[in-house]
């Protein structure tokens, strides 16, 4: 075979395979991967040749009519049918997407190698600190407070050595006194202020790259000794050329890539713990890891934090808790310049002369106002994000994680809080169903009984409510198949986090009692004569256009009824989703009828004797029957594909 023939053969094969791929996608209305399409096309080519030779062997060589074209068409259809059968069987046995494509597989292998190296490093760290049995799903027991203290210290040291992501995870866990024993909470709190600072030689290139020039061009003075070192960034004192005192938050170099690797490891560890351990399933650690990953990725972009600070400051104007003003024109993805506040970070101890209970009440009321009134709130108010100012006030820092609520959710949360305050179980159930994503079917009576038991346990006289009631409420919601929207989950997470901060400011602080007092004051503020008059005026202005059109509409309705022309128009399937569903069902039924009809016609034609002879053994009616049988098979495959796709 010379080169020209080889080229023509190769081009023919490529064109044939491309044409087969287009026809298969069109007939089955399904996209296939390159590998299985090539295999199906190759099968069609292999089968097509012998089929055409077999058909040609039964023809009269001297027949000049259209008979050869008929048999050629029948051979092509049969070869195509074989390829389609292969594709459908492959889709049934190995659905599309079960295995990655070649390029995706190559990328996956590379990611797996990188992840495996980091995973082995993290595993060695945890094993070195005595945490190996817990990674393998075993629970050797803690053996009392001393055992818990040793395990807590090992966990803190392992997280600290693991790097930024694990330090951040430990900081978040240190606020969850509802999940962890006191020994773990106290030990993990050390991660909030004991993070090793990166040297200035590593930080300066990040600052220069984000500023677009030397540090001296932007700042008149810049202190290279960090004020604070956190897991993601470090904070420095500086002075602008205008004389304004600022603080500069600079992200640690190369942290984004490390965080992505570690988040993947955290997710895998969480899934393993939830699958293998009882406490992992009880706490829902896989879901917690997803929320942690989303919040941490948002914190890596300081432009988001600058926008969050500006939004919270604008919404909270006049509140007793300060929010530093950002300088967005000097900030970037890895650098944030903001106003410098005169104070010290809150380390857990109330300074002398300060009223810890009053500070706690102010902080809690500020958070409630942000949630209930303004709709934008600090979602991570742990002690490391709070500053005690020199004038005795509090300031909120680190707005990388901020929650937002629309007006309808805020109103539903207010109704939920008021119903809890009144002890109204029905009102709590109705408000809760407005807050969460309600399924089509729900046992409302069972939900009411669960909520009644919840309120009797946590909210009756003589009980001391604590942050564990949020976990109980989440378990009730999950047990009844209710999905909590992410923004509402952020509210409960913020309340659970601030509870630990409030306990350090004022031990024994009653969160529920303060929330009740806040709701009472808020209702009183909204119930003044001026506010009620304003509300009535606003509602009346909204109803005025409808009231002006109402007499004319009533007159038209009454006139139509008097003249016998009154009717009601109802549009069936007005929803686009209903129309698509019904159209899909009709399409499937029509294909099924066509497949069955052509199959029956093919069988009848194949069983009919007589008719014009095409060859010595095949009549024209039988030839038509063979073609109809192939068409029926193709339609049947299309129906099967529709059924498989709708099942997924």
TrEMBL record:
It comes from the Bacteria. Keywords: Membrane, Transmembrane, Transmembrane helix, Ubiquinone. The chain crosses the membrane at residues 6-25, 37-57, 69-94, 585-606, 626-644. Residues 191-425 form the ABC1 atypical kinase-like domain. Pfam families: ABC1. Belongs to the protein kinase superfamily. ADCK protein kinase family. This is Ubiquinone biosynthesis protein UbiB. It comes from Planobispora takensis. The lineage of its organism: Bacteria, Bacillati, Actinomycetota, Actinomycetes, Streptosporangiales.
């Amino acid at each position: 075979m010379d080169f020209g023939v080889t080229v023509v053969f190769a081009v023919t094969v490529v064109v044939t395979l491309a044409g087969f791929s287009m026809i298969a996608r069109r007939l089955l209305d399904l996209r296939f991967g390159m590998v299985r399409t090539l295999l199906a096309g190759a099968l069609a080519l292999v089968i097509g040749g012998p089929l055409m030779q077999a058909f040609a062997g039964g023809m009269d060589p001297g027949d000049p009519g259209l008979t050869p074209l008929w048999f050629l068409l029948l051979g092509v259809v049969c070869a195509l049918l074989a390829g389609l059968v292969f594709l459908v069987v492959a889709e049934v046995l190995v659905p599309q997407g079960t295995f990655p494509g070649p390029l995706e597989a190559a990328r996956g292998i590379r990611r797996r190698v990188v992840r495996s190296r980091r995973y082995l490093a993290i595993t060695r760290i945890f094993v070195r600190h005595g945490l190996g049995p817990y990674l393998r799903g075993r629970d050797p027991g803690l053996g009392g407070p001393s055992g818990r203290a040793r395990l807590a210290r090992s966990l803190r040291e392992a997280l600290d050595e693991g790097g930024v992501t694990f330090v951040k995870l430990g900081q978040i866990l240190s606020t969850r006194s509802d999940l962890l024993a006191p020994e773990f909470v106290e030990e993990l709190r050390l991660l909030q202020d004991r993070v090793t600072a990166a040297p200035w030689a590593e930080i300066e290139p990040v600052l220069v790259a984000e500023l677009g020039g030397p540090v001296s061009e932007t700042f008149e003075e810049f202190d290279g000794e960090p004020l604070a070192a956190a897991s993601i960034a470090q904070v420095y004192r500086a002075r602008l050329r205008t004389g304004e005192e600022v603080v500069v938050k600079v992200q640690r170099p190369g942290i984004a890539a490390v965080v992505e690797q570690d988040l993947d490891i955290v997710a895998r560890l969480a899934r393993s713990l939830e699958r293998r351990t009882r406490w992992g399933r009880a706490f829902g650690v896989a879901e917690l890891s997803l929320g942690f990953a989303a919040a941490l990725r948002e914190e890596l972009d300081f432009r988001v934090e600058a926008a969050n600070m500006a939004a919270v400051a604008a919404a909270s104007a006049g509140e007793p808790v300060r929010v530093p003003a950002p300088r967005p024109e000097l900030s970037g993805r890895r650098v944030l310049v903001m106003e410098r506040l005169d104070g010290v970070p809150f380390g857990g101890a109330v300074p002398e002369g300060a009223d810890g209970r009053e500070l706690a009440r102010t902080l809690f009321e500020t958070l409630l106002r942000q949630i209930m009134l303004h709709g934008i709130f600090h979602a991570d108010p742990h002690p490391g994000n709070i500053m005690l100012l020199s004038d005795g006030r509090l300031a909120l820092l680190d707005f990388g994680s901020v929650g937002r609520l629309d007006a309808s959710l805020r109103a539903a949360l207010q109704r939920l809080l008021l119903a809890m305050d009144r002890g109204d179980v029905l009102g709590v159930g109705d408000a809760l169903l407005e807050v969460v994503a309600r399924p089509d079917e729900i046992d409302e009576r069972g939900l009411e009984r669960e909520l009644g038991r919840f309120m009797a346990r946590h909210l009756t006289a003589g009980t001391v409510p604590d942050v564990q009631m949020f976990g109980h409420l989440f378990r009730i919601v999950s047990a009844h198949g209710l999905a909590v929207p992410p923004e509402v989950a952020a509210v409960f997470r913020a309340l659970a986090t601030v509870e630990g901060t409030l306990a350090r400011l004022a031990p024994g602080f009653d969160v529920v009692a303060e929330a009740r007092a806040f709701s009472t004051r808020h209702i009183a503020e909204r119930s003044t004569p001026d506010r009620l008059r304003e509300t009535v005026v606003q509602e009346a202005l909204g109803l005025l256009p409808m009231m002006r059109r109402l007499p004319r509409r009533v007159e038209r309705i009454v006139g139509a009824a008097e003249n016998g022309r009154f009717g009601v128009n109802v549009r069936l399937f007005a929803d686009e989703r209903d129309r698509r569903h019904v159209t899909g069902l009709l399409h499937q039924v029509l294909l099924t009828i066509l497949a069955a009809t052509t199959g029956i016609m093919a069988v009848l034609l194949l069983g009919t004797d007589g008719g014009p002879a095409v060859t010595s053994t095949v009549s024209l009616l039988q030839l038509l029957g063979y073609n109809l049988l192939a068409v029926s098979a193709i339609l049947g495959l299309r129906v099967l594909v529709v059924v498989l796709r709708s099942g997924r």
